[in-house]
Amino acid sequence: MNQPLAYVDPGAKVASNVVIEPFATIHKNVVIEKGSWIGSGVTIMEGARIGKNVRVFPGTVISAPPQDLKFDPDTVTECIIKDNVVIREHVTVHRGSDETGKTVVDEGAFLMVGSHVAHDCYIGKHAIIVNNVAVGGHCEIGDYAILGGQAAVHQFVIIGAHAMIGGGTLVRKDVPPFTKAGREPVQFLGINSIGLRRRGFDTKKVQEIQSIFRALYQSNLNTTQALDKLEAEFPATDERDEIISFCRNSKRGIMRGYQIG
């Protein structure tokens, strides 16, 4: 249902039961699937693919071109917002560049007021991006990760699943899954035990993850040696293998261990 004061380009494909509030603007080459709600003053630009039951609050801009001086604005790329995502007021999500062709916000993610997701990012399922967080280009945020208010994530950084980033943290290194990160420079502050329990990890599994990170960060070994030790001495589990794979494949290097003082 389109309000008469909204503008929807004839080239947009909008499901019949989508609600578009007054003063929203929907550009051409946009798809919005059934059950979604577009608040007043929202701008959805070319290349947006909005899934089912998405809620976009006033003042948000989706699928604006990348803030990349090399980008040709005539290049056709996408900004994919999957089902059941909530995007609050004044959020900006830019479409992909010609390097990957897309920015993706996956199912159930929650982008809070004033947050920014740059080009070519992937935001995982049920991830929470809190108020005024800035996520640089080409970043990957894992499923169920939480980024605290006003955190800033450097381009190309990867944050693992179930990780929690403290408010105001500057994230210049990769953050392994299941961990808590904070301070300056960013460092390991323990595992996200409360979050893990809320998501169904039992006590034994939480203790296993704690033991893995104790070996990684508190064994007086360098990262490569610690990962070799984990592979040799710890039983193979999905969580162990995920942590080892994440750390071995990190291009920016993982955050350092807790530093006193």
Describe the structure.
This protein is of the alpha/beta class and 261 residues long. It is 17% helix and 26% strand. It has two domains: 7-156, Hexapeptide repeat proteins (UDP N-Acetylglucosamine Acyltransferase, domain 1), CATH 2.160.10; 196-249, Up-down Bundle (Udp N-acetylglucosamine O-acyltransferase, Domain 2), CATH 1.20.1180.10. The strands form three sheets. Strands 3-6-9-12-15-18-21-24-26-27 form a ten-stranded mixed beta sheet. It has a nine-stranded parallel beta sheet with strand order 1-4-7-10-13-16-19-22-25, with no helix packed on it. An eight-stranded parallel beta sheet has the order 2-5-8-11-14-17-20-23, with no helix packed on it. The longest helix has 15 residues, at 203-217. The N and C termini lie far apart (58 Å).
How many strands, which pairing sense, and closed or not: the largest β-sheet?
10 strands, mixed
Number of strand elements: 27
Mean pLDDT: 96
Helical residues, percent: 10-25%
The figure for the number of domains is 2
Radius of gyration, taken over Cα atoms and rounded to an integer in Å: 20 Å
Measured by DSSP, the beta-strand proportion falls in 25-35%
CATH architecture of the largest domain: 3 Solenoid
Count of separate DSSP helical elements = 4
Distance between the termini: 58 Å
Query: Can you identify the CATH superfamily of the largest domain?
Result: Hexapeptide repeat proteins
Oligomer: single chain
Shape by Cα distribution: elongated
What is the CATH third-level topology name of the largest domain?
Answer: UDP N-Acetylglucosamine Acyltransferase, domain 1
How would you write the strand order of the largest sheet?
Answer: 3-6-9-12-15-18-21-24-26-27
Uncertain runs are none
Classification by helices and strands:
alpha/beta
What is the C-level CATH assignment of the largest domain? Mainly Beta
